[in-house]
Queue: 4 jobs
Job 1
Amino acid sequence: MRRPVVDQDQLADRERALSGLRRLEIELTQICNLQCDYCFVTRNLQQPTTRPMAEELLEAIAATVSTLSSPEGVEVVLTGGEPLSCWPSVVRAVEIFAGALGPRLVGASVLTNGTLLRPDRAAWLAENRVRVTVGLDGTQEVHDAHRRNSVGIGSWRRAFRGASSLVDEGIVPDVSMVVADGDCASLSQGIEWVCDALGPATLSVVPAAPPTLGGSVPRPGPEEWAELIVALHDRARTTGTRVAPVADVVDAMTDGVPMLHSDDGAWGGSMAVDVHGNAGPSLELLSAGVGAVALGSLDLASGPFQRWRDRSPARNAECRECSALGLCGNASMYASTAAGGSPAARDPWHCRMQRHLVNALEG
Ligand code: SF4
């Protein structure tokens, strides 16, 4: 497989051609029933706002978003904290956005730790075609070492039971798996188990990164990580599961279309709103207290949104000769604050990993 020849002008043209909001992330609550040791919303978990997002605020966001939507529509992602800790708000949010956006709501999804999923909730999610991403870190031993509640009890059993209730209702879940350095050796076993047990459509395999609640959870070396996930992608392909970070690069290489990072608003197509109604390019920035604007004075073409977009490899000289240009998704995983001292910094770990990944795929 060969990487597409991409230059910065092409990348900038593609960014310009994309207009409007495509992905909206809502921090429905800051309450979580777990205290995972690698969680990046540390500030919130230590001093959470106890009330979920107010219904009036959800309505105001939906009204604003209906004026900002891209012609192709918007995906709305409900997250937290643990969004299912305020289930009535999940139901209202889906109803409000469906009502305000109509056919421009291209999808609603929930990011959950799975422990509060029950058959009746799974049935409602299935009926309303809400996609669900469950955080499951593989085998019980690995998962329970990191994902525990406030008294130290592991959450694997409840999370697996919750994810299984989705499968019982005909929902093919996505799974998000966070991997610390010491867990790499057991990763393939964990992935095989998840694929067999749940048959996820997409498996996002994410290296753990500081800052963390209980100190630093080391992440694997970038080259080691790249080789590991390329091998896992090859194996998972036979079951029809996408290993997200690799499959995205493979698609971009196969199609010859440069990849832009929609998830963190790198080119302005994403927006996050926290429980207080502050808007910004990503929840990571908002939870770090950076880049917040009031909903009423929102302008996706200026302020923090423009500064965030300026990080693009299309605008940075150091990216000009990079072998991952157009394939890196902007080198901006959520460790940016820890790695670069600023949530707007580029994470050099990710740049090294991404170049190694592209070289490995190129053979
Ligand atoms: S991997 Fe890093 S250096 Fe390379 S294009 Fe992406 S952001 Fe630039």
Job 2
Amino acid sequence: MQARYSKAHWRPLRFAGSMPARQQKHAVILHTNGGGAAVFDYFSRPDNKDDIASHFQVFNDGRIEQYIGCDKVAYAAYASNGWAIQVETEDDGHPERPWTKAQLAAIIGICKWAGCPAKPLAESPSDGVGWHAQYHSWNLHSHSCPGAVRIAQIEHVIIPALKPQPKPTKVVKVVPGRWAKFKAGHKKLWSWLKGKR
Ligand SMILES: [Zn+2]
């Protein structure tokens, strides 16, 4: 797996290079946050001594910024930090609003790129899609992040979108066989004969 997602704008944080290596599970954990562009500044503030951050921020319009390479950890959700890719999402202070269509498409794109299977994460290192409030060990401050509306979108839109799509079935052109032609001809003859009687 590549460290950087080609569809994201790469904006490395000052501590991006010094984070420990991530155990590379096919795992995405989703968050919500108030700010749009303010997230980079928030993670960059000098008093962020614990290097709190996420790998990605997904804006309302579907744009994506990446702050840390996915080969390294981002400190966003306690026990999951060592192995999951952390994805922030803009909500402008309204996590009760659903993610926009563009955000959903961007989130699904990240999950596909990360190779997440169509299932929720387990609490221990695993593959799938999760959310911050899913387990207490990831969420020691008991945030509701990303909120009931967005959690429902994970379960009903994002995870189902990761299911392998069935291959399109081949269109088979039906050519009437000899027997069908014979029957059709026979029918015509029969009705002609019936008319004669
Ligand atoms: Zn969160």
Job 3
Amino acid sequence: MSTVFLRTLVCLLLLLFHLKLAASSGGNDSFTFNGFGRLNLTFDGVANVTSDGLLKLTNMSKQSKGHAFYPTPLRFRNLTNGTIFSFSTTFVFGFISAYTNVSGNGMTFFVSPTEDFSAALGSQFLGLFNQSSDGNSNNHVLAIEIDTNYNPDVLDIDDNHVGIDINGVISNASHAAGYYANDNGSFTYLSLRSEKAMQVWIDYDGHEMLLNVTMAPIRMAKPHKPLLSATIDLSSVLLSDPMYVGFSSSTGSFKTSHYVLGWSFRMNGIAEPLDYSLLPSLPRAKSNDKDRIAMVIVSPMLSEPAFQLTSESSKDIGIGKKSGRWTIHVRAISNVFCEFSWC
Ligand SMILES: [Ca+2]
Ligand SMILES: [Ca+2]
């Protein structure tokens, strides 16, 4: 009798499992997280959820990467006619750096066929790619990057931008972080290093093949004009098989924590607005704990340095005499050192 009962129970559980899969493949998936619980997401690398419900993608360690995924892969393609569904997502994020004036490297929202990013690198690759895989059309990855490090090797426009990435970190389109005012269209620059929470909206119109990315400070209504707007046929990027949605983040030389406070997603519709009153707060780093990476302006007329530089590591920035010449070295980008010398 108990064996029959157990078999019945197993059959029921299998039926429920298949019903869940069917629900996740019907093109109507949606979810909203106003703050996170550990069971809301799956994690990789240093990513985790804090006790107060913050998704913490990186944790103030250098050369790190973290990923968080919605546990169930979602179907982005209409199997009847092969087109890509419209979708929309919004999230609130914020970065906390160990330094007063730099952070790095950034984070992405991504759609990927795999949860396995073990071969991906941090730093400018944002935990999604490496030197070999970057730009490969077989990646089938769409990412929206929020980037705080200027990496000229991957054609970054500056050290404070948002980009649309297809299969690699050389962006198809990118723009300095900020928003356009609804009344007069003027552009307001937003510093990603401000340690203030900000919101991003990503909307893809499958019929128009139009991808819009919009951002604003938290609690501001979504601006009418997107920050980025690009016509992209995602049918060559997103696969027929269900794909994972989530966030990646990486650090390089600068110790930074990258946080997500809330996240909403909807296939074939507008993502449910986040409830700001329910979101956890972005932690504040104590300013007197911070190191300062100085901007260095060197005058060749000086015979001795007339300023004091401090850094958490003499490897990042240093000053001294080399072959009788005063020399400043700055590790500005990953392991690239810049040296300035004068007599
Ligand atoms: Ca970068
Ligand atoms: Ca970039």
Job 4
Amino acid sequence: MYLYGASGHAKVVIDIINASGIKIDGMFDDDNAINELMSIPVGHHWSGESPIVVSIGNNLVRKQIVQKLQCDFVKVIHPSAVISPNASIGDGTVVMQGAVVQSCAQVGEHCILNTGVTIDHECVINDFVHISPQATLCGNVHVGEGAWIGASAVIIPGVKIGRWCTIGAGSVVVNDMPDGAVAYGNPCRIKYFDYSLCCENTGSPIAIYGAGGLGREVAGGIQRINGAGKGNWNLVGFYDDSKPAGSSISHYGDVLGGMDALNAVDEPMALAIAVGDARIRRDIYERISNDKIYFPNLIAPSFRILDPLTFKMGQGNIIQDSCSVTCDIEIGDFNVMNGSNVLGHDVNMGNFNVLMPGVRLSGSVKVGDCNMFGVDSVVLQQIKVGDNVTLGAGSVLMTKPKDGHTYIGVPAKKFDYK
Ligand SMILES: CC(C)(COP(=O)(O)OP(=O)(O)OC[C@H]1O[C@@H](n2cnc3c(N)ncnc32)[C@H](O)[C@@H]1OP(=O)(O)O)[C@@H](O)C(=O)NCCC(=O)NCCS
């Protein structure tokens, strides 16, 4: 067996392999200055030797090395670890001294379960995750690809940690964490987002559902995210049921097919739903049955959060240029903020809402699901907007609207279509 990576983390991996009675045939490292580690010679030119365990602590670097090596990978498990016979551990994963993995837990490939961690029943840990020493994951916790859980953190049952999150040492995580969040404390709160950590950096494929105007805007937004060094998405194309496969969409790419083609994708792929009609957005999401598809938040680098510690956000949101939010903001899933939107303090927004450019929601506004706010419309403070409301362009909503109706004007009045 061979090790790739010859730093401090590798020293522990060597101990684990020695304790398991397995022979180490050699080591590799890209750093030409490292020629030996714990009396094992370190080479710098890998030429297919295998099987390998990548002994690098940094999740992103580990992933990049794994992608570079085309070979067999092995898992290494210290004899003192207690692994349920009903749990599964992926290839390339290292399980350190005293770790406990309980029944029906699923641990992905190239993870690190560090010293003394507890992974309770039915947890799902995706590839390239690092659970640091003494961290405790209660039952049914899900951890997204590449996330790093700090030492002695506790994650309560059923919580979902997004892809490439960082959870600080000693945190107690009581809420789901969106992709790329850096969060800490008890209770654990988001401090900021670091999308540069996301797997986006490794050129992850992303597609856009909806090949219309919003689709092109989202494509441009993805280019801006990449250009600002906040990701390295590889835009593979568009899905759309109303345009034939092969149609080219400006200079961004081609239509790859419709919903059937999307549901047949067999490798993990990110997707942005770029359809401006709020209810159709939800309908599209509900028709996606392919569990290889995931929904990152796509956030323009210019997005400003006054108080990241009190900011919460779900998945699949699209936030275009020049939007800003203040404090105690909660945004659900699959909302579109289409540019120059301002959310005041304590705004709470549900799912599948669309805010056209220039929309402002004043302090303590509560918004349900599938609402559409027209260009430059305003909602005054403390108004509760339920579901399926349309607010016309330039309108000012001053009273609570009825679900499912359209409001226009200043002040906005219910508009009845004849
Ligand atoms: C969460 C973490 C990534 C934040 O790193 P960072 O963004 O560089 O943060 P900083 O070090 O600049 O600290 C910023 C503030 O957050 C506080 N802070 C940092 N980490 C914290 C934590 N885990 N819990 C509580 N507060 C924390 C600092 O005290 C500082 O507070 P201040 O602004 O009042 O002075 C890091 O501190 C951490 O906990 N890493 C995990 C380490 C670990 O478990 N390693 C295991 C290796 S096997």
